[in-house]
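Thought: the user wants the 3D structure for the chain below. I'll pass the sequence to the structure tool as-is, report back what it returns, then summarize two notable features.
Action: structure_tool
Action Input:
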Amino acid sequence: MNNLIDLHVHTSASDGVLTPAELVANAKKEGIKALGICDHDTVSGLDEAVTVGNSEGIEVIPGIELSTLHGSLDLHILGYFIDYHNEAFLKELEYLAEKRTERALKIVRKLQDIGFFLDEKALQKKSVNTTIGKPHIVLALLDEEKNKSRLKKEFGDCITVGNVIHAYLNYGKPAYVPKVKLAVADAITNIHKIGGLAVLAHPGFDIEMTRDGEAIIESFLPLGLDGVEVMSYIETDDKTKHCLAFFSDIADRFQLLKTGGSDYHGYKNCAAAEIGVEMGFVGTPFSVPNEYLSALRKRHEEFCQEQS
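Observation:
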């Protein structure tokens, strides 16, 4: 299928495996015509992605994914059509980058404490021109010869970046370290200040599909929330259909934009299959409707006119 859309993907500028150029090139191979690049708390990959997108005939929607905390809930807010050269915003991101680096070093020390060998200089080489993320840490760990026998025992022939992250770095795992998060209101305000639209990311993973979950989204309306990522792949086709129907109904009733994205990071398992879902929802019965992007563009134009 050609002319696919994916409004939520990640590059190696945050915690994706592929560089921005590689990601856009892969998108072209998959027949994707529009790509929303939303790296975590950074815009450092956007210049490269937009440049390659222009040369390859792919629309790259400049975005970001901001980490937030709402009570005990870890929620993410996507920003679309942002001014990613805004100096004030870049300074705020510098603070988050500093905290990201501090977090990475804490992860490294935890891995060292449980017996892994990691050289911080080698780690820096894996993250040139970007802040250190989980894939960079794991790549440095995999390159260290002293770790290979242990990894072989634990993972057999299935030693991948994704598997090591899931085993050691994710929530509840031995080397997990939480990251600094904004309030939801601050994330939405920051996105609006740089001309972007604020969308709640993958609520199917983070919010219960109940009346209480609906009330959480409703509480974000006075804060200026623009939309909801209604299409995310949730484990199975049936669960994904239920999630799509539930959050689409909420978006329609609250007059919020609807978006969809694979949250592609590029992690593979040993069958060379995507952990999660492939970019563009390739291989599933789902695809992001063109209407989502059209409505997003229209609302952004209206927003810019309102601000002028």
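Final Answer: Structure generated. The CA atoms of residues 63 and 80 lie 5 Å apart. Strands lie at 4-9, 32-37, 59-70, 73-80, 182-183, 197-200, 227-231, 257-260.
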